[in-house]
């Protein structure tokens, strides 16, 4: 029986792989041996041809010449790295593992400051061959999979969301299993739905989301865990709440209002909120989110009683956020113009997230509460504004 054929062809919507056959017999036997703890046998049984790299080196991998040290540091790839979270994650990981050990990738053109801050490479997660070349050529060991279409954007383009969030994830899972990577995939509060308990929402409960984003994230959680139990993939997943950041723009999620308010308050003194004033949602400052991501990746595997964890920090309504913001800008004028799509999504999501398992298993603890978060946002935006004023004067 040609197991590789059934494995490879069962999970792609994107049709053709450019060089699937060359790797799959070894891969399948490797996976089987991995599951039975006989890794060496797969390699022993593999023919020379199977062990030869089958695709040419990527011509655009500009850092081939970078010689990675043979230290213990992981060699990291971040997909979808130019969104709200990826640049900050790269900064954190580069501090810890060294600049050249962390490669940021996306399908968009990076701004100058990002391009000059460390290795950047083009990578479309729908292009399996390109992904594999990057992993092989750069000897990647850890992969943070950030590419996705978020909730509101996903509802506006379901076929694209299905393709990026589901087909793209299949590519990532196979690459990660094939090359024994440690894989991080973020999930979200959006992986729950109106029939989930909302206050609080535990790790394990009914998950029937009603957005393509939520459906694709439940799929990612289940597929990652399946690959973990079936093939030994070191899959790790956190369900993020809405993330608030000052130096990066949100990518079209339902919690975006909680970032926009700061920009509008400073620019115009007026803010129009697209959710009702009493819509309670779990939120987190970006530094807490990125630290949690590094911590779960570094946590000893034996301490993890599960592979997908809720993480939480605070939970507030637009009304409560406005009150806190008005402590800094009392003259802020707020109006509400509810966006029906976003409101329906928010009304189906958790209000309070129960993250007790993360706190117990690997010591998760948030740093920022609401006043800290608001202070930090204004401090950052104030200093950014002064810098840009100085630049204009000069
Ligand atoms: N930001 C949040 O509040 C939040 C909350 C929960 C979960 N998450 C998850 O965290 C991850 C990162 O979120 P974000 O806010 O940075 O997202 P974002 O929307 O800001 O960025 C996503 C990136 O993916 C890239 N992308 C799209 N199609 C791609 C493709 N085919 N190949 C490669 N890249 C592609 C986009 O160019 C974009 O830069 C996502 O998986 C998201 O679901 C984010």
TrEMBL record:
Reaction(s) catalyzed by this protein?
A: L-threonine + NAD(+) = (2S)-2-amino-3-oxobutanoate + NADH + H(+)
Highest taxon of the source?
Answer: Eukaryota
Give the InterPro entries listed for this entry: Epimerase_deHydtase, NAD(P)-bd_dom_sf, NAD(P)_epim/dehydratase
Q: What GO MF terms are annotated?
A: L-threonine 3-dehydrogenase activity
The UniProt entry's sequence similarity note says: Belongs to the NAD(P)-dependent epimerase/dehydratase family.
Q: Where is the NAD-dependent epimerase/dehydratase domain?
A: 76-311
Q: In which pathway does it act?
A: Amino-acid degradation; L-threonine degradation via oxydo-reductase pathway; glycine from L-threonine: step 1/2
BP GO terms, sorted: L-threonine catabolic process
Its biological purpose? Catalyzes the NAD(+)-dependent oxidation of L-threonine to 2-amino-3-ketobutyrate, mediating L-threonine catabolism.
Question: What Pfam families has UniProt attached to this entry?
Answer: Epimerase
Q: Indicate what this protein is called per its UniProt record.
A: L-threonine 3-dehydrogenase, mitochondrial
Enzyme Commission code(s) on record: 1.1.1.103
Q: What class of enzyme is it?
A: oxidoreductase
